[in-house]
Design a protein that fits this description.
Number of strands: 23
EC number: 2.7.1.30
Binding site for sn-glycerol 3-phosphate: 12, 82-83, 134, 249
Strand content: 15-25%
Number of helices: 16
Family: Belongs to the FGGY kinase family.
Binding site for glycerol: 82-83, 134, 249-250
Largest sheet: 7 strands, mixed
Domain Carbohydrate kinase FGGY N-terminal: 6-256
Structural class: alpha+beta
Strand order of the largest sheet: 17-18-16-15-21-22-23
Shape: globular
Length: 505
Amino acid sequence: MADFVGAVDQGTTSTRFMIFDHSGNEVGKHQLEHEQILPQAGWVEHNPTEIWERTSSVIQTALNKNGLHASDLAALGITNQRETAVVWNRKTGRPYYNAIVWQDTRTDRIASALEREGKGDIIRQKAGLPPATYFSAGKVQWILENVDGVRAAAEAGDAIFGNTDSWLLWNLTGGVNGGVHITDVTNASRTMLMNLETLDWDDELIGFFNIPRQMLPEIRPSSDPNKYGETLVNGPLGGVVALTGDLGDQQAATVGQVCFNPGEAKNTYGTGNFMLLNTGTELVRSKAGLLSTMCYQFGDEAPVYALEGSIAVTGSAVQWLRDQLGIISGASEIENLARTVPDNGGVYFVPAFSGLFAPYWRSDARGAIVGLSRFNTNAHLARATLEAICYQSKDVTDAMEKDSGVKLDVLKVDGGVTANELAMQMQADILGVPVSKPVVAETTALGAAYAAGLAVGFWKNKEELVQNWNEDKRWEPQWNDEQRSKGYAGWQKAVSRTLDWVDVD
C-alpha cells in the first residue's frame, strides 16, 4: 500500500494541501491565500474559479516539493469552509456568481422572515439550526432571486449547488466530463435543508427556500469505502487517487483531535472559533443557543452527532487590525504588542462584524470597542482583541455545560491562533480549565486525512488514530475566581452595547 494520505483543506482565507504518514505526522504541505471580496457592508464573497485554481496549485506544489506522486497516496480527503455556497453550471463548469461566504449577512431579511412566518421552529427541529445568515440555504435562495437566468437553469437541471467541498469534488473528478455532484452528512447538515434524523434533504425545508431539489448534491458518509470517485490522470495530482473522505472543517478538526467519545470537545481557532462537543449517536437538541449538528459518519456505522458553538469573528479580528487599521503588519506581531501592557486597560472589543453567532444569534449586532479613555493605546486594543477570542469561547463553553450537563475538564485546541502563547494562557485564565494543544496543530487537514485513510484501510480503526494523538503544550489557569468573574462581567456588559445596532426587517 502507498505510504501516505493527502488532504485538501479549503479554508476561508486560504487553501492548503497536506500529506500525512501513518503516524499522523506532516510529511509536506503547501498553502496559498485567496482574495476576500467585499462588495459592500456585510457582503463577503470568494471567486470559486480562483479557489479551484489555488487547490490545483497547492496539490501540485506540495507533491513536487516532496518528490511524491499520485501513486504514493493511498487516498485523498477534503475538508472545507462550511456554509459557503457555490452555484455553477454543470455543462460549462462556470459559476453563476461568486461564492457567498458563511460570514455574509445579506440574507438577514430571509432569515428574519422565516422566524416571522413561524418556520424557525420547524427548521430548528428538523435541521438543528436557527434561521440565520450563516447557513447555505438562504444564500442559494438569494442567488436564485437576484442573478438572471439561474432559476430557469436550476429548473432545467443545469444550475447546481454545493458548499466548497462539492465544488472541489466535482472539479477533481472531471468537472464537465463526468464530475460527481456529492457532499457529506456534515456539510449537508449546515444548509438548513437536511433532516438530522433521516440524513436526507427534507422537502418541507427545501420548500421554505424555494430551491429546486435537483440543484442539491447526493449526501454520502464522511468516510466512504465505496469512494466518491477518483481524480483524473491529467488532473492536479497527475494520477488516479481514490477520493474517500469529506468533512466540513470543524467536524474534520474534531476527528483530527480524536474526540470520538461522547463528552469530548475541541475548539478550533481560525477565521472564526468553533467548539464541538461529541454527543455520540444521540441527537441532543440545544436549549442554550448552540447548534445540533452532525459530527461524522464513517461508512455504514451509525451517525455521530455534536453540539456546536460557532463564533463568526476571532482570528479575522486580528486580520482586521492588520489590514484595515494597520496596527500590526503581520498576525504574529499581535502577541508582542499585547504583552507590552499588563491588562486591557478597561478596553473591550466585541468583533460582531457579522452579527453575533452562538449563543446569541443576533444579526442586528455590530462590532464595538468600549471603555476607551485617553490612557489607552493600540497595545490595549491588541490585548482586547485576543481577549475577545477567549471570552467568546467562554460564552460557548458555558452554553455547552448547560445543554449537556458535562463540565469541561480540559479544552483541546487547534488552529492558527494556538501559536499565540499569550492568547492560549488567556483562554485558560478566562475558562478556569487547562488548555491542551496537540503536536499536530493542523487537525482540520489531519481529520480529512483520517476519514479518507480509514475508508481504504490505511488506518484499521479509530483506536489507531487515538494512539497518534500527542500533547505538545498545556496552559494552566493563573487567574483567581475574582479576576475571572470581574473580567467576564465586563465582557457581558460590552456585548450588550453591540445589540440592536442594525434594523432588520
